[in-house]
Each structure stands twice: as C-alpha cells, then as structure tokens.
Protein: PucR C-terminal helix-turn-helix domain-containing protein
Amino acid sequence: MIDKLQKVFPSAILEDDVPKDERHLYNIYTANDYQQHRFALKKEELTEKDEQLLEVFLAVEKKDNYLKPGDYEWYTYLKEGGHPPKTLEQFSTFRFFHLEGKKLQENHSDLYEALSYYFNENVKIVYIQTNSLLILVPDQDADMFDPEELAGILTTDLLLDVFIFAGRRVHKGEDIRTTYNQENLLFQRARALFPKKRTFKEYESLPFILPLLEKHQQKQIYHYAFAGLETESELIDTLYQFFLCNLNSSLTAKTLHMHRNTLQYRIDKLMDRTGIDIKQFSNAAALYILIHTSKNY
Structure:
C-alpha cells in the first residue's frame, strides 16, 4: 500500500521511518484493514481536500483525541525523542507488555479495569496509538503473568481480538526508548510472520526474524537480547560453549576447565539481567543463533 500512496504523495513513508525530530511535520494514518504498518505523510504536501479524502479511506491518528495527560510524556519520550517521563522513576526493573488490536480506545475504561485486576500491581498503562497500548509491569512477579492467558481473558470478558508481546526484564539505567523500539520491531515482524498467532513472549520468534533483518538491525537485536552484557566476552564464550554442550553444566565446565560455580555464576548473571530462563529451548535457541551470527560480523 505504501507504493500506491507514494505515487500520489511522494513524501509518504512508513511511520517507523520518520526521524524522531521530524514527527511534528507528518500526519500519521492507519489503514483499517492493514494493522501491521502505519503511514506518514508530510503536512506541507497535503491540502485540506487531500486530508479530507485520505480520512475517507484511512484513519488519521490524532493523539489529542486519545492520550490522557499522563500519556503525553510517555508518547513523546518513546515516539518523538522527548525527555524521560517522571513516572519512570517509580520502576527500578519492569517489563513491557505490548498490546495491539481494534477498539482498544473505545473500550478503554473496561480495558483499564481488566488489566489492573489481572496484574494486581501498580502497573502503568499508556496508549501509544488508538489501537495499541503499552503496559509497564513491575518485575517482582512478572513471571506470573502470561500473555496467552491475558489474551484469553480479554477475548472472553471484553470480546477484544488482541495481539500481545511480553518483553524481557528492563532496567531503569538502560536506554529504555531503544529497548521499546527493539521489542516493537520484534512484535511487528512476528505478527507478519505468524498472522494466526496472538501472543509472543521474549525471544521465541527471534530465530525466525533475525535472518530477515539488515546487519545493523541484527546488531541492535543482539545488544537488546543480552541487555548490554554482550561486551563481556568471557560470559558470551561461556554461554556459547554451554549451548554447544547441550546445556550440560558438568560437560561445559570440564570442556572449559572451569569450576561449576563459576559457570553457574555466569549463567545466573545473564538470567538475572534479562529475566529469562536460558535453559528453555526457545530462549537457548535464540541466544545460540545470536552468538553464532555475531561471530560473522
């Protein structure tokens, strides 16, 4: 669809390609039957009649219509390069739950109540677009919450057809905007690859997505997946050998001439940083592929 738009409006691009410091120059549109991407057109290129015509076929995103006062800080921080929101200070570690689906804004009161009841935590719920929102969940008990279970509740109780991505552990000190963008990239690519699947968790889709990315994107995902620990070469080499030894701690320690306590310390360090269990097949496969691919950078 972007190709068709560009024939009429040469400035048309995907929303994700808009430079953060130029977002105010664009109108953002969403095709009602094309939920994977949003489109951006330069305001200066549009006449009043153009805007009226576009709104017949596309939904224009007007953040004033759906963003609450507390959401503006988060929206401008994540999407427009603004300053970190003050509410971020109350979270030391947390996870992002990304939700997308039709009629989320129309059902915002019931949805907020259902989400608050489900998480039973002091969660922060932020609308990013009318059809997408972000939930910041304190990390203490985040493993108790399952995206598939949540999707089932929203479908049954609110009759909402939603897509959910649950990310890794996020730390206040890291680049949270970049983390959000990496998870959003994984979410959108996973939805495109698996259109019938409604929920995605951490790294499970990464092995399928990685080969489709440009090299610079692969490096960004590598940094995201290891939460900044990719610079610790001893840790990465130890993990790689652990995977080559089929997650056998005794064999890995013997192969590396390493005490098992040292091996366990390094494994625990990654698990504590990311909040994922690297002994689960999907996580181990993703990290193995990432390390293996990185050796060819």
